[in-house]
Write a structure and sequence with these properties.
The complex is a heterodimer. Chain A is mostly helical. Chain A contains 15 helices and no strands. In chain B, strands 1-2 form a two-stranded antiparallel ribbon. Classes of the chains: A mainly alpha, B mainly alpha. At the A-B interface, helix 7, helix 8, helix 13 and helix 15 of A face helix 3, helix 4, helix 9 and helix 11 of B.
Chain lengths: ~400, ~300
């Protein structure tokens, strides 16, 4: 929806620009969602070049390693998909929430709770059929993620407590839950801080021989397609998006805003929880404190870079998966610490949101309708008036 | 009794980074800007402070570097949210991700090695040592004294009693009116972000320079998010925020001490560590109902 809207908007100004200048037309074409993403990546690479020079490597070599090397062999290509899997889930979770006017920044915690539930089921299904064990585990993880998202959701709709703060605060708590389990009741007999392995029946099957690509990737793509269909093709999706665009107007149109927000909180949490299931059952085979590696926060980058549209989320998750494999290969080949990937991600998010703001006032001036590729800056929570 | 004095002393010590963070965030939010970059700014302050103290051998130069790092972080936030009018939630989260990444990247490049690098921790002051056990409450790092006796009162005075503070509140409540009255909205918001972020960075540097004398990954561990909650809990008032920080630190310090008490051996350490976060959420649920946010909260200002 949003990608189409962006392209339509770019097309509309394309027509307008034929009456003005060619340069203006080029700028207008670049104000589409895809244009913003491409421009943002270029600016980010320029901004992060000093870090690569500081690490004693050539930026050109580094960028080739970051983005091109992962695409050069079948094994690496499949690793890109493996890396993209958790952030596809969290990207969808965040995009749904932001589109619907709910600031779920707790995907990290919801992911971890999904992983906890998956491990619990996985350790107790020895000898079961995978056809039962795997769906049960996915369901448990989704429910755990939704349950973790329920508290901020209900506090928001019942008491008006800002969900930004509560979802954020529950992330360190979820990490403490994981650490407490692997150092306590689920301590691995071999000593290290991870749980015992889950049963073989609970492990996600791999999709290809000699590859780590697993069922979780298929599941993530299916969830993304369902999310796309519901958001852009159903009345429910229209209601959710209406609340995201303007809660006042949605309420005036008879939409039950609180119900919509709570539903979005639960759905978003459930999808983030499935990311945790996928990492436990597809990659780790056990619960470890480091199993997320920040996928909950990367989901925000994925969602924003993708213009909060599902096709965009797919594209940006693949790109950041590529970057993740690439920064690891650059660490081995060029000695650049792989943490450069986090700097690139954060900078990318800053550049994207900056470019969207610039486009917003361009849009404002030319009276083009705003699209839904970024969340509205404000909602009805914040009552006007002096601080009490 | 010594147990109680130790607990009170630890409460002030553990509240110190939160006092800096909460006071800093109060300044930026009073000017109308939610700074979710706080977690990253504290992290960056912690790293920069430590790195410069290690390099120069002088903790005070480390502290100065942390302040400069904070001012720069605030300027980046200002560029996005004030100059460009970008979405404040996303800008802040991006800043946090970028600054944590930058700290860990630089840590790998400059510092990390076989052995843990350390700087001499800052000295504790003990002005009431002659009082015996009671005096241990006052045995604190200089930065703790600065937080409670200098920074919090000064920011309270600045916000409530000076022209500059009035300007901050004006652009946070009604930027159109402030602009009409001749106040530069952009300049005041930049200044608020830089001052607030510098305080946040000092809060982070307190952990590396005073408490630990070293830098470890995940050193902030959500303290920035706690400060965001404390600002709301404190209704954007400096001393109510400080009170919130003390309550959080009391629960935190109590949890750490209960673990070594008889009868608590079987309670997992992690539960005790999670308790203060849950307490903050509970406090928000009880007191954060229908709070009045600053009038221009989250709203970019553009002359039309």
């Amino acid at each position: 929806m949003s990608a189409a809207g962006g392209a339509g908007a770019a097309g509309a100004t394309g027509g307008m620009a034929s009456r003005t200048s060619g340069a203006k037309a080029a700028v207008a074409a670049f104000s589409g969602t895809l244009g913003i993403a491409v421009l943002a990546i270029l600016i980010t690479l320029i901004l992060t070049a000093p870090l690569i020079l500081a690490a004693g490597a050539s930026p050109i070599d580094a960028y080739l390693n970051f983005f091109i090397t992962p695409l050069t062999s079948q094994f690496r290509l499949l690793e890109v998909l493996v890396s993209a899997t958790p952030i596809l889930f969290t990207g969808v979770a965040v995009a749904i929430a932001f589109r619907s006017g709910y600031w779920n920044i707790g995907a990290e915690g919801q992911l971890l709770m999904g992983a906890v539930a998956a491990t619990f089921v996985g350790m107790n299904v020895e000898g079961w059929s995978p056809l039962v064990a795997i769906p049960l585990m996915i369901l448990a993880g989704a429910l755990a993620g939704a349950a973790w998202a329920f508290v901020p959701g209900i506090l928001r709709v019942r008491l008006g407590i800002d969900e930004v703060v509560t979802t954020l605060l529950l992330n360190p708590v979820a990490l403490l839950v994981v650490k407490g389990l692997v150092q306590g009741p689920w301590r691995n007999p071999d000593g290290i801080t991870e749980s015992p392995p889950i049963a073989a029946a609970a492990e996600f099957p791999t999709l290809l021989a000699k590859s780590r690509l697993h069922l979780g990737f298929i599941l993530a793509v299916v969830i993304l397609l369902i999310a796309w269909y519901v958001l852009s093709r159903t009345a429910t999706g229209l209601r959710l998006r209406a609340v995201g665009l303007s809660p006042h107007a949605a309420r005036f149109a008879g939409i039950r805003v609180e119900r919509s927000l709570l539903m979005v909180a639960l759905v978003s949490g459930a999808i983030a929880g499935m990311a945790g299931v996928s990492e436990v059952a597809g990659i780790q085979g056990r619960l470890t404190p480091g199993l997320s590696s920040g996928a909950g926060y990367t989901g925000i980058v994925v969602a924003m870079l993708g213009g909060l549209s599902m096709p965009g989320v797919l594209g940006s998750a693949l790109l950041l998966g590529d970057l993740n494999v690439g920064t690891n290969s650059a660490e081995r080949a060029l000695g650049i610490p792989s943490q450069v990937g986090d700097v690139v991600q954060g900078t990318l998010l800053l550049v994207v949101v900056g470019l969207l703001a610039i486009r917003r006032w361009r849009v404002h001036r030319s009276d083009r309708p705003a699209d839904e590729s970024e969340p509205p800056p404000d909602d009805e929570r914040h009552v006007e008036g002096a601080p009490g | 009794m010594i147990w109680l004095f130790d607990l009170i002393g630890a409460t002030f010590r553990n509240a110190t980074p939160l006092v800096y963070g909460t006071t800093g965030e109060t300044v930026t939010e009073r000017s109308g800007i939610l700074n979710l970059g706080i977690e990253g700014t504290m992290y960056f302050g912690a790293f920069t402070g430590f790195a410069f103290a290690l390099w120069t051998g002088e903790p005070l130069l480390g502290l100065l570097a942390a302040i400069i790092a904070g001012v720069l972080a605030g300027a980046v936030m200002g560029l996005l949210t004030v100059t460009l009018g970008a979405n404040q939630h996303v800008s802040g989260l991006g800043l946090t991700i970028a600054l944590i990444g930058l700290s860990e990247f630089s840590n790998r490049l400059l510092i990390e090695g076989a052995e843990q690098k350390r700087v001499p921790p800052m000295e504790q002051w003990n002005p009431l040592g002659f009082l015996g056990d009671v005096g241990t409450i006052a045995q604190q790092y200089g930065l703790t004294y600065v937080a409670f006796l200098l920074v919090a009162p000064a920011v309270w005075w600045m916000l409530g009693r000076t022209r500059f503070g009035l300007a901050i509140r004006a652009v946070g409540e009604n930027p159109e009116a402030a602009d009409a009255a001749g106040i530069s909205v952009a300049r005041v918001r930049y200044a608020s972000l830089m001052i607030g972020s510098a305080l946040m960075a000092v809060g982070g540097a307190f952990l590396t320079l005073a408490v630990l004398g070293s830098f470890t990954l995940d050193i902030i561990a959500g303290r920035g998010w706690v400060c965001l909650a404390l600002v709301i809990f404190g209704r954007w008032r400096v001393f109510r925020g400080v009170l919130g920080a003390l309550i959080f630190a009391l629960v935190y310090s109590l949890g750490l001490r209960l673990q070594i008490m008889p009868g608590f051996e079987d309670v997992p350490q992690e539960l005790m560590l999670a308790l203060p976060y849950l307490a903050v959420i509970a406090a928000l649920a009880i007191s954060g109902r229908n709070v009045a946010y600053p009038g221009a909260y989250l709203k970019p200002y553009r002359r039309s």
